[in-house]
Write the structure tokens for this entry.
Amino acid sequence: MTELRKQIGTRIRAIRNAKGLTQQKLADIASLDYRYIGALERGERNFSIDTLEKVLTALNVSISELMFSKEHMTEDETIRQEAIDEFVALTSRLNDEQISILRRVSKEVSRAFD
């Protein structure tokens, strides 16, 4: 069992429990078998991206919420992640030309801090 699979499984279990769902209920919502959910949470299953998407959709969480558990972050990490989340939200409605401009500006700002 890989450490990453185990960490992802642990996070899925924590989120499921926080939402008050049983393994059976999560399995039903995600159209999976409850035994598969258990094995996934224990890090025993090598899951596909499609399966992970089903589970995240059933839990109503994003991949970033799964990967970046704020309760395990330091205060600095939490502040940084909140800034990243805000930036993503602000830029998600930009068109391709605006994104291109933003990338150029971001590179220049980054160079200024080097």
